[in-house]
Write a structure and sequence with these properties.
binds flavin-adenine dinucleotide; four-stranded antiparallel beta sheet; FAD/NAD(P)-binding domain; alpha/beta; 16 strands; 3 domains
């Protein structure tokens, strides 16, 4: 094996974009696989952000099947996939690696919920009666623990930048163009391998309950790089009170007696289902939405549907490789391990499993050295989050709330606006946002 190329300021062997659970675990695995590699982890925000480290529950559940539960886990996960796509080899990877990835979290001393005898408490997750999920609290502390781990391994953490383009040469992804969030000079970073851990599409909606700090750019970035995406229409949506976003499970609403069994089934999962009989209740509520998107039921505060997380993304193989050489993906921007519905706690598991796998595989691929050329010339660019970007995002989010919910009427006007914006909008951020939204609508043609 040739020794890794010495690092340069704007170059590294492994570049990880996004510092949620997936990106942190990927950077950790890459550096641990070969400590000589220069690994850079790009994180737009210094403080805990995204759904991993800043979600409003301040807690996360993780599916943690024991070895003897692996078959049941796989069977349940695959049964939930329709009408989305889930690949058995990716679901198997989740089951196989679960004990090790839970071990990582225990090793970081995260605060798990425990029984009086000290053993981990086990809970059923959404869509599953089996008590296989464990829960940890304290996301800021989890963020600190992950950050300390990657830093102690020698990962370079680059705060304040967002990826705006995945750079390609000869069909390979070979780096990323990064925009500074606060008006500094932007830069291009070359890398032997790039891992996208960019989070999901929920930031594309005005009504959303994802963690703050997400960009919503992931699908657009990955698609523009040529990666094949799956399940991009299958977001999880939760019904919540419009006033304070307090979760309301539709199964607890007063339904006629003949719908009692559907209501009981609906109570076993928080997100709306795409292809289960109890989705009839969600369709009924959706049909009662007013022009403002709110459902007003007698004796209840107005309800609305809120975007929570995506179940799709760049289709990966069991090592986190996308369809484009040099480009890996993990976490909420990767797809193929969940279908349209996923088991509660399945995303944290997949972020860790495919973060670790992508990091190790990227390290192996990158140790052949860096792409041989220097980075392209730098040009000052307009700072991200300009007033025009903010106003564009507001319009896009309003449109997604009207036309991007399951069963919402297709709007030719909105789609045409997005298509035009994806080509001609004023900034790259706006073009990528429009492209991401089209992918969620399934309206790219
Ligand atoms: C309230 C809530 C509760 C949840 N509970 C559970 C649960 O109990 N169990 C479960 O399995 N799942 C749960 N989920 C889903 C789960 O938390 C997320 O899907 C998962 O944490 C995503 O991890 P990630 O690393 O892929 O993305 P994130 O944690 O969202 O991280 C993405 C990172 O990428 C950064 N980023 C974005 N764009 C760019 C860019 N262009 N360039 C560089 N960086 C970028 C973001 O700033 C962020 O740091 C929950 C979600 C929410 C909102």
């Amino acid at each position: 094996m040739p020794p890794p190329t010495p690092s340069a300021r704007n170059a590294c062997q492994v570049l990880v974009l996004g510092a949620g659970l997936a990106g942190m675990r990927a950077a950790w695995a890459a550096k641990e696989s070969d400590p000589r590699l220069d690994v850079i982890l790009v994180s737009p925000h210094k403080a805990p952000s995204g759904s991993s480290f800043a979600n409003r529950n301040n807690a996360l559940g993780i599916q943690a099947p024991l070895p003897h539960e692996a078959e049941a886990f796989m069977e349940e996960a695959l049964r939930l996939a329709h009408p989305g796509t889930a690949l058995p080899e990716l679901v198997r990877a989740l089951a196989e690696d679960a004990p090790q990835r839970l071990g990582d979290l225990l090793d970081l001393n995260l605060t798990f919920r425990r029984e009086p005898d000290g053993s981990l408490s086990r809970f059923p997750g959404c869509f599953s009666p089996a008590p296989r999920a464990v829960v940890f609290d304290g996301l800021a502390a989890a963020h600190s623990a992950f950050l300390a781990r990657v830093r102690s391994l020698g990962v370079r953490v680059l705060h304040g930048y967002e990826a705006m383009e995945l750079l390609k040469r000869g069909g390979h992804v070979c780096g990323a163009r990064l925009a500074a969030l606060r008006g500094e000079r932007s830069m291009d970073l070359s890398a032997g391998a790039v891992i996208a851990a960019l989070g999901g599409p929920a930031p594309l909606f005005a009504r959303r309950i994802c963690g703050p700090g997400g960009s919503g750019l992931a699908y657009g970035l990955l698609h523009r790089a040529g990666a094949r995406l799956v399940n991009t229409r299958h977001l999880q949506f939760f019904w919540s009170r419009a006033r304070d976003r307090a979760f309301v499970n539709p199964g607890t609403l007063p339904w006629p007696d003949e719908l009692a069994s559907l209501a009981a089934a609906r109570r076993t999962h928080c997100p709306l289902a795409f292809d289960l009989p109890d989705a009839a209740l969600d369709r009924d509520l959706l049909s009662r939405r007013g022009a403002d998107g709110l459902v007003r039921l007698p004796g209840h505060e107005p309800l609305a549907l809120f975007a929570h997380a995506g179940n799709g993304g760049a289709l990966i193989d069991a090592h986190g490789r996308t369809s484009i050489p040099g480009l890996f993906a993990c976490g909420e921007c990767a797809g193929g391990m969940h279908g349209a519905q996923r088991l509660g706690g399945g995303m944290v598991l997949s972020a860790l499993v495919f973060g670790a796998r992508a990091g190790a595989a990227a390290a192996q691929e990158a140790c052949g050295g860096l792409p041989s050329t220097s980075t392209p010339a730098q040009e000052p660019r307009a700072p991200a989050n300009s007033a025009s970007d903010a106003s564009f995002l507001r319009s896009l989010r309003r449109g997604m709330d009207r036309h991007g919910l399951p069963g919402a009427p297709h709007s030719q006007g909105f789609t045409a606006w997005l298509k035009d914006a994806s080509q001609r909008a004023a900034s790259e951020r706006q073009r990528l946002l429009a492209l991401s939204a089209l992918l969620v609508l399934g309206d790219l043609s």
